[in-house]
Amino acid sequence: MSTLHTVAPIARNKGLSLPLYGYLLILPALGLLLLFTHYPALATVWESVFSAARGGHPAHFVGLDNYRALLDDDTFMLSLRNNLLYAVITIPLAVGLALMMALAVNRRLRGNALVRAAFFIPSLLPMVAIANLWLFFYTPQLGLLNQLLSFFSLPAVNWLGEPGTALYSLMVVSVWREAGFFMIFYLAALQQIDPRLAEAAEIEGASRAYFFRRIQWPLLMPTTLFILINASMNAFRIVDQVIAMTNGGPDNSTSLLLFYIYRTAFSFWDLPSASAMTVVLLVILGAIALIKFNLLDKRAHYQ
């Protein structure tokens, strides 16, 4: 018996129409969504059009002045550029590595479960543990990476202390952490593909590359879109890794958007400017979601 047939008699017994009864059922979840998601977003937009209350002077309406000030904020523009570069590099690398790992462990091989666990463990570790692990790798002179460089008689590199390498060093950590998590989704999607398709391709003499390109990849497109939207959101929401490893330095070379919002709000106590930055971040995330749902979904192949 369907859920609709179960709910309809209950609604009639209570003298309620079926749509109204349905709205009452979702009211608790809807209330929490409005309270903890939509209200903070609207409050942030409202805060962004007022000045900061300082020295006993109350806040007053300033319109779009806080947004105009962002265009003249060199640190904000640098953080935005850093974040865009961070997203452009880490998203395809993490997704591509996740796909390769999923294809590698999708076969029936000895020790496969151990390999899957090894790929997935980084996503389970807390960021503090991950930061300390990679700080050991990146430590000047004594770090593992510099020890390898010295083995080949190459000069040591201050990975997190040089503006030219610090941001890319953070990218490596993010890709290492997220690829294993995304691998689980790809692995689940691969195991849902009808094995008869692989058998038919083998009978026809199709190579593995051809089978992947013409069969597996189109069927993996819905999972890829899901992973892409999550990877994009993660790329613009990163803050704990920056705080734990570089604190935005050196010379703001690793300052990302959410980190700068956090520092503006809770170090400088400039809540209106932080709110304006948050609105910009919400617009970016909303644009990513719109592109996903209105453009990319139409190109996905669903089984």
**Name given to the CATH architecture of the domain at 84-255:** Orthogonal Bundle
Shape: flat
Mean pLDDT level? 87
Oligomer: single chain
Q: β content, as a range?
A: under 5%
Strand tally is: 0
What is the overall number of helices?
A: 14
- Helix and strand composition category: mainly alpha
CATH class of the domain at 84-255: Mainly Alpha
Order of helices and strands: HHHHHHHHHHHHHH
Find the CATH topology of the domain at 84-255. Answer: MetI-like fold
Radius of gyration: 25 Å
CATH superfamily of the domain at 84-255: MetI-like
Query: Approximately how much helix is present in the residues?
Result: over 70%
The major beta sheet can be summarized as:
none
Distance between the termini: 26 Å
Which consecutive residue ranges, at least 5 long each, have pLDDT under 50?
Answer: none
Describe the structure in your own words:
By secondary structure, this protein is mostly helical. The chain has a domain at 84-255: MetI-like fold (Orthogonal Bundle). It is built from 14 helices and no strands. The protein has helices spanning 3-13, 18-47, 65-71, 74-105, 112-124, 127-138, 144-151, 163-192, 195-203, 208-219, 221-236, 240-245, 257-266, 271-294. α11 runs antiparallel to α14 (271-294). It is flat, with a radius of gyration of 25 Å. The two termini are 26 Å apart. The model has no long low-confidence stretch (mean pLDDT 87).
Which features does this protein show?
single chain; 303 residues; mainly alpha; MetI-like fold; 14 helices; flat; transmembrane; ABC transporter permease; ABC_transporter_permease
